[in-house]
Specification:
The chain is mainly alpha-helical. The chain has helices spanning 10-24, 42-61, 81-97, 117-138, 147-160, 181-188, and strands at 106-107, 114-115.
């Protein structure tokens, strides 16, 4: 806890920084390029990722949700992408800062609708971190998904992803010899670690 009584969620801060870094690294001509999410370009992945973050904040606070369906991103942004991402990340970080670490149950926008705070914040972080990787890979940037962050998120993924595969995650890809925690996590959520545009 900080002196102001806000909760510091290190895993969320690291995932948000990964997404922030990936978005800042997109070149001006990179927003329409393909991504590991085959149906979406880079702008759409950003809209989806930001929308998901706002959905977590709305579930926690009862505030407004995303301005469009995160699963049907338009691909059209009327504002600077970096500012768009920052606004979503701030909204979400502020919402989680008001949640005590030992909270037994919080509302979340994914099945089953309520989770412990510790698992819920990791679900939110997982979403940000994986989409950070999507954006970075799509634009030729370095992976922002560190093995340490991936290792922390993998346990949460194993508890959360299966009910979401029908609409949010592709089938898992079997692990391969030599995988680090980041590669293992990516395969589990249906990504190929060696994907390139």
């Amino acid at each position: 806890m900080t002196g102001t009584g806000a909760t510091e969620w290190a895993v969320l801060a690291e995932a948000h920084e990964a997404l922030r870094t990936a978005v800042r690294g997109v070149p001006a001509n990179g927003w329409s390029g393909p991504t590991p999410c085959a149906e979406w370009n880079v702008t759409q992945v950003l809209q989806h990722a930001a929308g998901d973050q706002i959905a977590y904040a709305a579930a926690l606070t009862g505030g407004p949700g995303p301005s469009e369906n995160p699963f049907e991103p338009s691909g059209k942004l009327s504002e600077d992408p970096v500012e768009f991402a920052e606004a979503a990340l701030k909204t979400t970080a502020d919402a989680w800062a008001a949640v005590a670490p030992d909270t037994g149950e919080v509302a979340v926008p994914i099945p089953p609708g309520r989770l412990t705070a510790a698992l819920g914040v990791r679900a939110c972080a997982l979403d940000a971190a994986v989409h950070a990787w999507d954006i970075a890979r799509a634009t030729g940037g370095p992976s922002p998904l560190t093995p340490a962050l991936a290792a922390e998120l993998l346990g949460a993924a194993r508890q959360l992803v299966e009910p979401l595969r029908a609409f949010a995650f592709a089938p898992a890809i079997g692990p391969q010899e030599g995988d680090d925690a980041a590669a293992e996590l990516l395969r589990y959520v249906g990504r190929r670690p060696d994907w390139t545009a």
